[in-house]
Amino acid sequence: MEKIKVIRDLAGRTLTVWFDDPAKESVCEETADEVVLMKDADGKVIGFELLNYRPGDSAAGFTVETVLRPES
């Protein structure tokens, strides 16, 4: 598995997570929960973006926890 890429944009208030190469993005689909799914040409989800993300905002209904794991 490739490394996961996480981008936090404080000015744009977004949190973007890529599971695969962002260059493979073919289509985006916004869900009702202010989440954008990025998909490749085969329709496989390769990333997502949380809109209106503010760290520590309990009103958002989620928290982001950073967990560091040793390299295998």
The number of distinct helices, counting runs of at least 4 residues, comes to 0
Name the beta content range: 35-45%
Query: How do the SSEs run, as a string of H and E?
Result: EEEEE
Outline the low-pLDDT stretches: none
Which whole number gives the mean pLDDT?
82
Which terms would index this structure?
72 residues, mainly beta, globular
Can you offer a commentary on this structure?
The protein is mostly beta strands and 72 residues long. The chain has one domain (5-60). It is built from no helices and five strands. The protein has strands at residues 5-9, 14-18, 27-30, 35-39, 45-51. The protein has a five-stranded antiparallel β-sheet, with no helix packed on it. A hairpin with a 5-residue loop joins strand 4 and strand 5 (45-51). The mean pLDDT is 82.
What topology does this entry show?
Layout: E1 5-9, E2 14-18, E3 27-30, E4 35-39, E5 45-51
Antiparallel strand pairs: 1-2, 2-5, 3-4, 4-5
Please provide a brief summary of the model:
The protein is mainly beta. It has strands spanning 5-9, 14-18, 27-30, 35-39, 45-51. It has one domain (5-60).
